[in-house]
Amino acid sequence: MKIGLFGGTFDPVHNGHTQIARAFADELALDTVIFLPAGDPYHKNAPRTPAEHRLAMTQLAVRDDARFAVSDCDIVRSGATYTVDTVQIFRQQFPQAQLWWLMGMDSLLQLHTWKNWQMLVRQTRIAVAARGESSLSAVPSELRNWLGGALENGTLHLLQTPLYPVSSSEIRGRLKSGPAADEWLDAAVADYIRCHGLYRG
Ligand code: ATP
Questions:
Q1: CA 14 to CA 170: how far, in whole Å?
Q2: DSSP secondary structure letter of residue 68
Q3: pTM score of the predicted model
Q4: Which of 107, 126, 157 to mutate to test the pocket of ligand 1 (most atoms within 8 A of CB)?
C-alpha cells in the first residue's frame, strides 16, 4: 500500500492543494492521499482560522476523489505537533505501507528547520511539487548532502506537473478586501466560507 500524507494549514484549502494531491496520487500511484490539517497554534502570535472550520473545509474539498481522505490527527493532539511525530503515528498504524510526505517546493526549502528532519526523511519518502519562484537551486547547504542521495535513490521525488499559482494567503487577502476568490476554491468550500463569514477581516 502506498500512502501520501499531505500536511498543511489549509486556511483555506484551495484548488492548488487538490490539484497537486491528484498529481501526486497519479504520478506515484498512491492508493490514498490523507490530508492533515494542522492544529490550532499553541502560541498566540500565529493566528489562524479555528481547526473545526479548516477541517470541515478540507473534508468538503476532498469529497470528489475516492483516493482522498482527511485525518484530524494533528488537530486532536495537544501542544506542538511535529511532522516527524505524525509520520511515526502513521508508520505504527500501517507498518507495511510505503509512506510519502507531500509538499510544495517552498516547504522543501525550509525542511532543515523542521524538528528532527533527518529522522523524518528516514521514516518517509518525500514528494515535492514545483511552486512559484522556489527552486532546487536555492536549497540550503544543510539539505544538500541528503538531497543528492535522496534524488538518486528515489526517496525524494520531484513532481512533473505544471505550476498552480495560488496560495491561501492570497485568497485570505482577496476575501478580506471584498472580491470573491471562487476560481481558486471548490464550490462547496466557497459556500462554507460565505455561510460562516470567514476571512472577512
Ligand atoms: P499560506 O499562503 O497561508 O502559506 P499555502 O497556500 O502555502 O498557505 P498550506 O496549507 O500552508 O497552503 O500548504 C500546505 C502544503 O501545500 C505546503 O507544503 C505547500 O508548499 C503546498 N502548496 C500549497 N499550495 C501550493 C501550490 N499552489 N503549489 C504547490 N504546492 C502548494
A1: 11
A2: E
A3: 0.96
A4: 107
Grid coordinates of 166:
495560488
Pairing of strands 32-37, 125-129: unpaired
Residue nearest (by alpha carbon) to ligand 1 atom 8: 168
Residue 168 CB partners (closer than 8 Å, separation 6+): 9, 10, 11, 12, 13, 14
> pLDDT (tens digit, 9 = 90+) per residue, 68-99?
999 999 999 988 889 999 999 999 999 999 99
Q: Are 172 and 13 in contact (CB under 8 A)?
A: no
Distance between start and end Cα atoms, the chain = 43
pLDDT tens profile 116-168: 999 999 999 999 999 988 889 899 999 999 999 999 999 999 999 888 999 99
Instruction: Quote the cell numbers at residue 103.
Output: 509538499
Longest dimension (CA), the chain: 49
